Amino acid sequence: MSDYKMIPCAHYDYLELACLRGYQLNIELIDGTQCQGQAITTQTRADKTEWLIIQLQQTKQSLRLDHIAAITPLEPNAEFSRVLIAAKQP
Question: What is the number of alpha carbons within 13 Å of residue 40 lying toward its C-beta?
């Protein structure tokens, strides 16, 4: 796994808000793939990497924050719209 690159604190705040509100998110990854799931929590692991935990139907999935290009809440009255998190790979 490549070296972790911390995301800006302001972007982290949007992820925390999404978890607090339990928003359904459309998540764009830097490799161009997308997924949708409910934001559950964030997590910092022993190796200092930070992760977003989402609920995908019956399973939970962990997404490394520096692999997330953007999040968009799917809720009609969400407190924010699309947020760019990390740069997509060229």
Answer: 15
What is the Cα–Cα distance from 56 to 36, expressed in whole angstroms?
7
Q: Give the DSSP letter string of 30-58.
A: TTS-EEEEEEEEEEE-TTS-EEEEEEETT
**Residue 53 contacts residue 61 (beta carbons within 8 Å):** yes
In the block, tokens 């998540």 appear at 27
* pTM for the full predicted model: 0.90
For 12, counting Cβ atoms within 10 Å of its Cβ (0-12 exposed, 13-18 middle, 19+ buried), the class is middle
- DSSP letter at 86? S
Q: Is residue 1 over pLDDT 70? A: no
Q: How far apart are CA 34 and CA 57, in angstroms?
A: 15
Q: Which tens digit of pLDDT belongs to each residue from 19-50?
A: 999 999 999 999 999 999 999 999 999 999 99
